[in-house]
Amino acid sequence: MELINTKLKNGLTLYAEDLEKPSIVPWLLGSFSALNGKKSLLELCSGNGAASFWCVNNGLYGRITLLDRRQNVLEVAQETIKQNRLQNIECVCTSVEDFRSSRKYDAVLCNPPFFAERSVSKDENLKAIRHEGSLTLDVLCGAVSKAIRQKGHFYLCHTPSRLIEIITTLNDYKFEIKRIRFCRHTSTSAPFLVLIDAVYLGGKGLTVMPDFIVQDQSGVYTDEMSSLCER
């Protein structure tokens, strides 16, 4: 397995499979959560753990569980753990549906598959990333409600086209959305991602944050995007 590594600005080295251009979505999710301090964190559909490692690089030092059903991506996460001599991070290879834990987490991160199962692709890795299969929004929110403590935060990114369904399902499982932020490639393009901060058994009150703009019209990263990628 060929790996590439990225040196983050505070010193952590992140490893990833050398398969395709790295996604910016984990950075957007990690920065949106702004997790730091001694908080326990569960990342579902974690892949190589990039969102959680972004938080670790920015001051999170509580117990972390990375969960994914693909052993190969968890092996990459374990390489990041090993090379950076990180502690209190465990990797669990199972599906979200089958995950059971007696621990209640302070926060849950998830970058789930966005689309209903329509793919005929034989590439199981691509199907796992893009198509939800049995991991529907209902299954996901139900699993999170069992794993999170009262007033815990569920940080989710998803496609804006399913926002109404997401809001309805979160409410069904007693989550109150506290913050929403749309992400656009440029200031004139349609949102490609929505970031959601929902609190389990939380109170009412929603803040819609200013849109996150990735790059200007000439293709140069904005200052905010550049701050996530600083070395």
Structure commentary:
It contains seven helices and eleven strands. Helix content is 28%, strand content 28%. A hairpin with a 5-residue loop joins β1 and β2. The chain has 231 residues and is an alpha/beta fold. The protein has one domain (24-226): Rossmann fold (3-Layer(aba) Sandwich), CATH 3.40.50.
Class by alpha and beta content: alpha/beta
Strand content: 25-35%
How many alpha or pi helices? 7
The arrangement of helices and strands along the chain is EEHEHEHEEHHEHEEEEH
Query: What number is the mean pLDDT?
Result: 89
Low-pLDDT runs: none
By DSSP, the count of extended strands is 11
CATH topology title = Rossmann fold
Question: Percent helix among the residues?
Answer: 25-40%
Level-1 CATH class name: Alpha Beta
Largest sheet: 9 strands, mixed
CATH superfamily membership: Vaccinia Virus protein VP39
First-to-last CA distance: 25 Å
User: What is the overall shape?
Assistant: globular
Total domain modules? 1
Rg over CA atoms, rounded to whole Å, is 17 Å
